[in-house]
Amino acid sequence: MQEKIEALLTEIEQLTASTAEEVEALRIRYLGKKGIISSMMNEFRDVPADQKRAVGMKMNALKQAATERIEQLKNQFAQNGTSTGAVDLSRTAYPVALGTRHPLSIVREEICDIFKRLGFTIAEGPEVEDDWHVFSSLNFADDHPARDMQDTFFIQHDPQVVLRTHTSSVQTRVMEQTDPPIRIICPGRVYRNEAISYRAHCFFHQVEALYIDKDVSFADLKQALLFFAREMFGAGTKIRLRPSYFPFTEPSAEMDISCNICGGEGCPFCKHTGWVEILGCGMVDPNVLENCGINSKEYTGYALGMGIERITNLKYQVKDLRMFSENDLRFLEQFRAAH
Ligand code: DAH
């Protein structure tokens, strides 16, 4: 038995392999459960008692030598994988995991597309704004509550720099720089200092529309609103305008649509009224036109603004506003089919 061990030791020292598969075959041959060394362990039982100690030590040395040699051969391929085919350069690529569009982006695009069909073009403005574009130019009185610390994030007090609280600031930027006719739609992020809950967040998204030309009337506004509501929520959608107040429009209105969840029958979402409010609108106040250098005797216009989260809620019934900014893939992946 001792000679057999010696012979195996030399054999093992000289082992070579040219692929990782060959190494694995050698491992099974020598160290596997039914391999050469295992079967020799069985023979060990028959070794006379006085030789057991010496033979035992040799057996252990053999096992160790085999393990080390095979490990060495294995490493050779791990370091030098390409030349041995361990990396298969001809195999097809792993599928690329595609992301999904964010629900707010999907809805923003949809809103913009509808207005583009009416001839509106996209306009953008800064999120870090000055008091003039967010408030003063839009006819907010100096003591208007919207300027309050509770609502507005102030970045600097003098001169006043704020995070815009609505996208109406883009209206005045465009009016200052462009001669009518103006027909723009302004999507963007806005900020308000609100406690975060399922129904309020410190930032959200709005889309603003503005149309200025000669003889623009409230009837034009109403037509655009009806077109928008039907395109967005389906041909059977009804609209309802309620008088309201905004500093920058006169007259002003809020628009409700027939609840698209219950079809106007009444449900918890519409608080059993059959209607849900979706936007604010009105005829641009002549003061705003004049503030931006547009002759209010010659031109009139309408404006409207809506929250994208609100519209998305109505379309997809997202109950908790915070879901939109938490980046939970389980939530986001549900919108795979929506675009
Ligand atoms: N800026 C308003 C808000 O943030 C929304 C709005 C209302 C925009 C009426 C308008 C408008 O253009 O005409 O609540």
Keywords summarizing the entry:
single chain, 339 residues, alpha+beta, BirA Bifunctional Protein, domain 2, 2 domains, seven-stranded mixed beta sheet, three-stranded antiparallel beta sheet, 12 helices, 10 strands, 38% helix, elongated, binds 3,4-dihydroxyphenylalanine
Overview of the molecule:
With 339 residues, the protein is α+β, with helices and mostly antiparallel strands. It has 2 domains: 2-79; 103-338, Bira Bifunctional Protein, Domain 2 (BirA Bifunctional Protein, domain 2), CATH 3.30.930.10. Helix content is 38%, strand content 20%. The chain has 12 helices and 10 strands. The strands form 2 sheets. The chain has a 7-stranded mixed beta sheet with strand order 1-5-6-10-9-8-7, sandwiched between helices. The longest helix is centred in the first third of the chain and has 28 residues, at 52-79. It is elongated and about 120 Å long. It binds 3,4-dihydroxyphenylalanine.
Helix percentage range? 25-40%
Query: What is the helix tally?
Result: 12
Number of strands: 10
Let me know the average pLDDT: 91
Strand content: 15-25%
- The shape is elongated
Distance between the termini: 75 Å
Q: What would CATH call the class of the largest domain?
A: Alpha Beta
Q: How many structural domains are formed by the residues?
A: 2
- Unreliable spans: none
- Largest β sheet strand count, sense and barrel closure: 7 strands, mixed
Report the radius of gyration as a whole number of Å.
37 Å
